[in-house]
Amino acid sequence: MLFRSDVRGNLYDCGFVQDIDGNLKVTSGEKPEDHSDIERLLDVAQTADRTNRWTRLQSVLDVDRFITLVALDVMVCNWDGYAMNRNNYRIFHDRSTDRLVFMPHGMDQMFWQPRSSMRPNFEGQVARFLFSAPGMQAQLDDRLARLMAETITVAVVTSTIQGALARVEPALKDRPDDLRNLKFHAGEFQAKVLDRIRFLQEGVLGSSTGSRH
User: Fold this and answer.
1) C-alpha separations of 11 from 19, 94, 122, 130 in Å
2) Could you count the other beta carbons within 10 Å of the beta carbon of residue 14?
3) String of b and e for 119-129 (b: at least 16 CB within 10 Å)?
4) What does residue 93 show for φ and ψ, rounded to 5 degrees?
5) What's the CA gap between 87 and 123, in Å, rounded?
6) How many other C-beta atoms are found inside a 10 Å radius of the C-beta of residue 41?
7) Could you tell me the maximum CA-CA distance found in the chain, to the nearest angstrom?
């Protein structure tokens, strides 16, 4: 189970383009007035004391899931998510581990630029804090490579897009102009995704020899 058996923790709606220090709204949870979980994360992310903050961060944030979230954002060019724009995300307090989990929400800007950098600038302060730590950028690169191998291939992308198009086509059989328009945009989107795959593959291969994109 994603959150084991305890789903009573706060779920935060993070609003429009604001970070964890913004006016977050609790949409579910047993203690909507208690924001101490977010306050602990904010305290760690803003502290200037580097001595114990890595240990402290792991005690309040599900770091492994956060790395996966950011790797997926990079993979699909989600510039409008938490890491790159502090937008389109939710935070859940998983009380079974007493850690916060960042989740994507309302993603609508994917694959906007197929050749966008594998090393984007991070606007979200948790992302900036985490990936400035020694060794964390390498962990992000490794996670990105693993996710690419497991989830996004030319065959999967092509079959998924063409399969979706085939299911819609019968509804537009009497609307040839709309059908042509749909096929055009589906082809355009597929080309962007495949271009992204090629670019990432070049970057992953290059990283093994010391080059970076």
Assistant:
1) 15, 9, 23, 22
2) 22
3) ebebbbbbbeb
4) -90, 105
5) 10
6) 25
7) 67
CB atoms within 10 A of CB 9: 24
CB-CB contact of 77 with 110 (8 Å)? yes
pTM over 0.70: yes
Give the model's pLDDT for residue 212.
39
Q: What are the tens digits of pLDDT across the range 126-152?
A: 999 899 888 899 999 999 989 888 888
- Residue 77 in contact with residue 116, Cβ under 8 Å? yes
Give the residue from 88, 55, 94, 92 showing the smallest Cα distance to 73: 88
- 47 Cβ contact partners less than 8 Å away, ≥ 6 residues apart: 53, 56
Euclidean distance between CA atoms 74 and 83, whole angstroms: 9
H-assigned helices in 12-100:
36-46, 53-60, 63-75, 82-85
The confidence band for 46, taking pLDDT boundaries of 50, 70 and 90, is: confident
Distance, CA of 84 to CA of 74 (rounded, Å): 9
Instruction: Give the DSSP H or E segment for 205.
Output: helix 176-207
- CA-to-CA distance for 189 and 186, rounded, in angstroms? 5
CA atoms of 32 and 171, how far apart (whole Å):
45
